[in-house]
């Protein structure tokens, strides 16, 4: 079964600390993975997609097929990074976009 | 402002009723996606339309249907409403539609409350 797991509901760190938001997936084919972010009172927006191998707002995410993971990382968290983060998997064979439950990141001063 | 608009902002209705939610994509975008966000189910992809045709389907109930019109706006129809259908429904649009690699721009959502 296709599934996206974000094991942490809440991740609380201090400003300047490294951040890693975990995402594991279950998918038999070749996955396409994304990270979405929703800041307080704002709309959901695409943060990263693995095929682009880009860094947005200092965040990076590497697809690890061996560990079936797509963790989101940032070396030095900022207060403005506080938001809800969703990992998502597009299963092309089934034409579905599957979201994880989301992780709330709280960055404290 | 992403350029994606949705109406109405809020909707309160009774169980068993039918409602229609509307989404207007950004100018030039051909794809429209519908999502449901609730406390119980989290964030769920419902359905995608590309240039008037259904392109991808998620966990959309049979009581729900959608369509995209020639002017590219889309409507999500929810019928035989149940209390559990109470959620935030939002749409997104993107230029392309062959997969989810095209950046999606999200609307503000319609808050549906079923009483």
Blueprint (SSEs and pairs):
The complex is a heterodimer of chains A (109) and B (115).
Chain A: E1 3-5, E2 10-14, E3 19-21, E4 24-26, E5 32-38, E6 44-49, E7 60-61, E8 72-74, E9 83-91, E10 96-99, E11 103-108
Parallel strand pairs in A: 2-11
Antiparallel strand pairs in A: 1-4, 3-8, 5-6, 5-9, 7-8, 9-10, 9-11
Chain B: E1 5-7, E2 10-13, E3 19-24, E4 31-38, E5 42-50, E6 53-57, E7 64-68, E8 74-78, E9 87-94, E10 105-106, E11 110-114
Parallel strand pairs in B: 2-11
Antiparallel strand pairs in B: 1-3, 3-8, 4-5, 4-9, 5-6, 7-8, 9-10, 9-11
Commentary on this structure:
The complex is a heterodimer of chains A (109) and B (115). The model of chain A has no long low-confidence stretch (mean pLDDT 90). Chain A has strands spanning 3-5, 10-14, 19-21, 24-26, 32-38, 44-49, 60-61, 72-74, 83-91, 96-99, 103-108. In chain A, a hairpin with a 4-residue loop joins β9 and β10 (96-99). Chain A is built from no helices and eleven strands. Chain A is mainly β. With 115 residues, chain B is an all-beta fold. The mean pLDDT of chain B is 92. Classes of the chains: A mainly beta (109), B mainly beta (115). Chain A binds chain B through residues 32, 34, 43-46, 49, 51-52, 86, 88, 90, 92, 95-102, and chain B through 2, 33, 35, 42-45, 48, 55-59, 90, 92, 99-101, 103-109.
């Amino acid at each position: 079964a296709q599934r996206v797991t974000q094991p942490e509901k809440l991740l609380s760190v201090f400003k300047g600390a490294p951040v890693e938001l975990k995402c594991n997936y279950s998918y038999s084919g070749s996955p396409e993975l994304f990270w979405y972010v929703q800041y307080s009172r704002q709309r959901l927006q695409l943060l990263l997609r693995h095929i682009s191998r880009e860094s947005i707002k200092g965040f990076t995410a590497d697809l690890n097929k061996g560990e079936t993971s797509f963790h989101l990382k940032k070396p030095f968290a900022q207060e403005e990074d506080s938001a809800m983060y969703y990992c998502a998997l597009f299963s092309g064979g089934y034409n579905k976009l599957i979201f994880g439950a989301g992780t709330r990141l709280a960055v404290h001063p | 402002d992403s350029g994606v608009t949705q109406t109405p902002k809020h909707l309160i209705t009774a169980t068993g009723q039918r409602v229609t939610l509307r989404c207007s994509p950004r100018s030039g975008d051909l794809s429209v996606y519908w999502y449901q966000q609730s406390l119980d189910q989290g964030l769920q992809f419902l359905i995608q339309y590309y240039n008037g045709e259904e392109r991808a389907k998620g966990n959309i109930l049979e009581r729900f249907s959608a369509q995209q019109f020639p002017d590219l706006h889309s409507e999500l129809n929810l019928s035989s409403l149940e209390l559990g259908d109470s959620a935030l429904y939002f749409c997104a649009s993107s230029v392309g539609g062959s997969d989810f690699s095209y950046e999606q721009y999200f609307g503000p959502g319609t808050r549906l409350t079923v009483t």
